Amino acid sequence: QVQLVESGGALVQPGGSLRLSCVASGFPWDYNAIGWFRQAPGKEREDVSCISKSDGSTYYADSVKGRFTISRDSAKDKDTVYLQMNSLKPEDAAVYYCALSYGCSVPYDWWGQGTQVTVSS
Predict the structure, then answer these.
(1) Which of 4, 48, 51, 52 has the fewest beta carbons under 10 Å from its own?
(2) 3-class secondary structure per residue, the chain
(3) Cβ neighbours of residue 13 under 8 Å, at least 6 residues apart?
């Protein structure tokens, strides 16, 4: 079965950096994208970034462009996707989730449990 495990969330000061990790296992052979999403209290979930397995293309929400970088390492039975977050702002605080899909623009079928990012001085 598909498992997605996020890690790396923490408390960081504004302007600081964090790197989130998402380890995916048990995935179908033809999955093609892993995305990062976030949800702050009282707000709707929003997409943050996505990376395609087939061609490595990436997507970023306007709110994180130039500050966040998504990357991927692939092993035989495990894929790890990273989200490097720089110049963090208080509005970046949220629970960050990774999810797996057949494409960055199609519905995501599998979700991780999330990791908390807090940005505060």
Answers:
(1) 52
(2) CCEEEEECCCEECCCCCEEEEEEEECCCCCCCEEEEEEECCCCCCEEEEEEECCCCCEEECCCCCCCEEEEEEECCCEEEEEEEECCCCHHHCEEEEEEEECCCCCCEEEECCCEEEEECC
(3) 88, 119, 120, 121
